Structures are given as structure tokens and as C-alpha cells.
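Exercise 7. Predict the structure of Carboxypeptidase family protein from Sphingomonas chungangi.
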Amino acid sequence: MTIRISAAFDSGNIRLTGILDDRITLEIAHDEDSDFYQWFHFRALGVRGKRLTYEITNAGQSAYPGGWPGYHACWSDDRVTWRRVADTSYADGMLRFTHEAAGDAIWFAYFAPYSMERHNNLVARIAGRPGVTLASLGQTLDGREMDCLTLGEGPKQVWLYARQHPGESMAEWWMEGALECLTDPADPIARSLRKQATFHIVPNMNPDGSFRGHLRTNAVGVNLNREWHEPTPERSPEVLCVRNAMDKTGVNFAMDVHGDEAIPYVFLAGFEGIPSLKDAQVSGYQAYQDALVIRTPDFQKAKGYAVAGKGRANLSMSTNQLAERFGCVAMTLEMPFKDNDDLPDAEFGWSPERSKKLGEACLAALHDVIGDL
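Solution. The predicted structure, encoded as C-alpha cells:
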């Protein structure tokens, strides 16, 4: 059977440049109207029993070339279970991975994909549970709804939102775990949290970029996490409608869920450089980190981003903007595209399952500190 490479599906991204014997050369396509690219997701057909090497020749010019050393590509033959390609290497600006498929078709991706179809199924499933309401906060530039799930009856206002950068699909796997936990009637932590807080949850901040197979931007090439200071209907309606909803409810606690290409750890980034920083915000953020360390060994505090100096925070980023705007405890959660070097898993690396478990742990840590927020 002739080998065929395709990416014309939900979140697909690759361009075939050549097939020579057992070597397939590929390029990742840029985000629309943007220089960003790194996300790939494609199918290889006609590969049964063939040991093939896939070469992404433009990896060295991608958005984060530091993300390739130590990285292992993801593969699946059923689109349910995603493992890591052991024979993955990066050299001379090229990502190579070699794999022998057992069946006719195999899928490869930068991380286990979270399709818009799965998003719609998640939203429908959670919205059908007792005490949950579903609303659209607005529409994207491609006309998709900005889904928001609301639950709980407590006075504390908690906002959880994910996937501003659409290629960071682990963020919506985290959301699936958090939503399933939070709506479990038998979970005592979830029951207590729902009494103490009202949750506003946006599982996917960038539906257009997710469907288009973008790494970091929306339909017109805009990085949404640089729009929170002055979002507009023309460039960033996704941020505008969410921020407007936050203005109506107020915010006591906010978490923006992401993935990091280069750093092989789970970590948090805070808001230490905002102009109006308050001691209570700092202590609340530190207390949450301490609680999360206890709740899961997948989290650590030693490695992460540099902390901005006093008054030097970038207020176009959501965590900084919300902490400044509402005086709340806000944070960015980062998960690895690679693996967690503190607790590595050679077969799966960082995975959808671990992302979901982290979502549960993050809620448990919030329960530990919510009374003081």
C-alpha cells in the first residue's frame, strides 16, 4: 500500500515534503498570520510492518527549539492511548522519530490531542450533571461558542480557564479531570468546595486555534495571553468576553492552565511584579503552592520561570492582569510537553491521565486554602 500522510482533520498540522524509501520528510505549518509553530498532529497510512523514520525538517526554526532536546513524540494506533516514541532525537535543527507500526495506520502528535469534538462531548456531559449551568460568554472569530460551565453556591468566586494557547492540549485534559472531580456527588472535597465557592470554568479559551492546529494563536494569529490589558472584538473577542464576565462576578481565585515546551516539570507562575501587590495576595499564593506540594508529588516549587521585579509585571498576561484588577490570588499552571523529570515515565511521559490527576490535586489544594482567600 502507498504511504499517505494527512492532517486534514480537527487539530491536524503537518506538511509532507517527501518520501524516500523508509524516510519521510515533513514540515510543521505556521499558525495563521503568525510566525508561531510547533504543534504537529498527523496520520500515516499504509505503514503496517514498516519501520519508518519521520523527519520534521523545520523544527529548529520553531517557536521554542529548546523544547525539542529530551522530547519524545507521541503516537497512537487507536487515538485513545498515546505513548511516547522511544527512538526520538533532535540534531541539526531536525526532529527525528523512528517507529514500526503494527497496523495500517498510526497517528503522531506533539502531545495527546484534545479535539473540539471531545470538548463538545465534555461540555455536554458536565452540563447534564446536577447543579451545573452552561452558557456561552460570546463567540470566536470563526463563530464558535465560548463555553462556560458554572457550578457551586458559595460566595468565593473562582475562575478556571485553559488552553489560551491551543497547542497546549494537556490543559484541557487537566480540565476534564477537574470537572469530573468537581461534579462528583460522592467526592467530599468537591462537595465542600461547591458550598464555599461558585466556580466559573472555561475549558477552552481558544476553540478556533484548537481546531486549526495552531500552537499559540487564534484565527487571526493573535496570542490571547498578551491581550488581557485591552482586548478587542476584532483581535481577541475570546479574552474580551471572558474578562467582561469576570468583571461582573469579581474574582477571588483564578488559575490559567498551560503547558511548557522546554521545562520538564510541573510548576506555577505568579504575579509578584504587579504595581499594587498586597501581602495578602503573596501569602495566599504561597499557601496554595505549599498545599499543592503536599497534595501531589508531580508538583514542585524549585524550577520554573524567573520572577518579575517589583512593578515590572506584564499586565497583558491574564495572571498579572487579574491579580492587579481584582486584588485576587491568580496563577498560571504549567505542565510539561516532555515528562516530569522528578517522576519520569518512559512509556507515556507526561500524559492525559497525569494531567487529569493533577486537576484533581489542584482542587484539593484549593480546598486547603480557600477559607483564607
